[in-house]
Amino acid sequence: MTSADPIAQSPQILACTISRDVENFDLLIEDMENVLGEAWGDLSLQEASEFLSQPEASAMEFVAIAMDESDEDQIPQIEAIIHTARDAGIKVILITENVSANQLHQLLRSGAEEFLPYPLPEGELASAVERLRAPAPAPEPQEAPARTKKIAPSRVNTDGVVLAVQGMAGGTGATTMAVNLAWELANMKGDTGTRVALLDMNHQFGSVGTYLDLPRRDAVHELLSDIEAMDDEAFCASLVQFEDKLNVLTAPPDILPMDYLSQGDVAALIETARHNFDYVVVDMPSVITQWTDVVLNSAHVYLAMIELEMRSAQNTLRLKRVLQAEDLPFDKIRFILNRAPKFTDLTGRSRIKRLAESLGISIDVQMPDGGKPVLQACDHGQPLAESAAKNPLRKEIAKLAAQLHELNQTTSEAA
Ligand SMILES: Nc1ncnc2c1ncn2[C@@H]1O[C@H](COP(=O)(O)OP(=O)(O)O)[C@@H](O)[C@H]1O
Ligand SMILES: [Mg+2]
């Protein structure tokens, strides 16, 4: 080429912000400067698609699209921008503030590589860019689709096995999982049968009692208000039985503050339950409490329910940050994707893959949508096995229970 290339004269632009007005996202401006110095530009929503379809744009690494609730009517335009960027081989980081779950869901499908909340958490843009720059992992060998992979217990048990379930957002199916997992375990065939306790640790709006149609008893309040005085007998006396097989510590009749129990109280409660039962299934509140780490540390398996949507994704990121900042074992958490797309749904599968990658987690187990019968089972106060035994969700939970049980048998024989 004889004539000077006009692009080469200006500093190489590696990235662009795209928004209605970038001044509304001043933390993003700051972060872009930290990550890229001057090698970035800014485009309005109107300019973006045209610019990105020019050949020179494809030299860019990524675009950061920022939007808030006032851009909700621009979603089709934003989706078009994402598609144009991806066609040009440019990665997309989506940054959102106060955008409704529905809209986010729609955007999540459009193929952005990373999604971040605004205001941007410290260092989050830098780590997202780092992830984008990491070489793509070698393609995984195609295996036969196995919905349920093995979950290894994280330590050898002596007393009962503690299985905790927490939803990464409200309504992600934590209680449904806890109740049905506990029921499946209680029905495991064995020489002696398995003794299972189910503890509802949501002392405010716990719904285990509702899902199993059990009364909320004052005895629970009494137990929780003086854990120091608790012995095996007092603990067992405050449990109610579901069909003589499952022992349940329901939530107390009145709402208690989430910090009603101290760390020591919760540790004592779990230890006592472990002495008395083979399995202790703990239904955790979806909020983080001062004793969440006690349960996390004592659990053999800590299940986190997520869904393919923004709230789960963002809360998982937040949880990851908190746990890692406090040196708590984030890696112990096994993620379960609830209401997972079907295996034949290829776009669904790639969305799952992207979600896992962008959160830096592996999604070990997927649970299908069980439809109306799941809600009906809750309303009738029955586990799925009793009211809808053939339901696909029930089948997967039964499989998971069987695996956990089998692993537990092998590890306790080996111990
Ligand atoms: N896989 C599923 N298929 C169909 N309905 C489900 C599924 N998982 C949960 N639900 C329903 O979603 C609602 C919320 O579930 P729940 O277990 O109470 O969530 P959480 O305890 O996380 O708030 C309930 O009505 C439940 O019946
Ligand atoms: Mg719940």
Description:
- With 415 residues, the chain is an alpha/beta fold.
- The protein has two domains: 12-133, Rossmann fold; 161-414, 3-Layer(aba) Sandwich (Rossmann fold), CATH 3.40.50.300.
- Helices cover 41% and strands 17% of the residues.
- Strand 4 (91-97), helix 5 and strand 5 (114-117) form a beta-alpha-beta unit.
- The structure holds adenosine-5'-diphosphate and magnesium ion (MG).
- Residues 174-175, 202, 207 line the site of magnesium ion.
List keywords for this structure.
five-stranded parallel β-sheet, Rossmann fold, alpha/beta, 415 residues, binds adenosine-5'-diphosphate, eight-stranded mixed β-sheet, binds magnesium ion
Topology:
Elements: H1 6-9, E1 15-19, H2 26-36, E2 40-44, H3 45-52, E3 62-68, H4 75-87, E4 91-97, H5 101-109, E5 114-117, H6 124-133, E6 161-167, H7 174-186, E7 196-200, H8 208-211, H9 218-225, H10 232-237, E8 240-242, E9 246-249, H11 263-276, E10 279-283, H12 292-298, E11 301-306, H13 310-325, E12 333-340, H14 346-359, E13 363-368, H15 372-379, H16 384-387, H17 392-414
Parallel strand pairs: 1-2, 1-3, 3-4, 4-5, 6-10, 6-11, 7-9, 7-10, 11-12, 12-13
Antiparallel strand pairs: 8-9
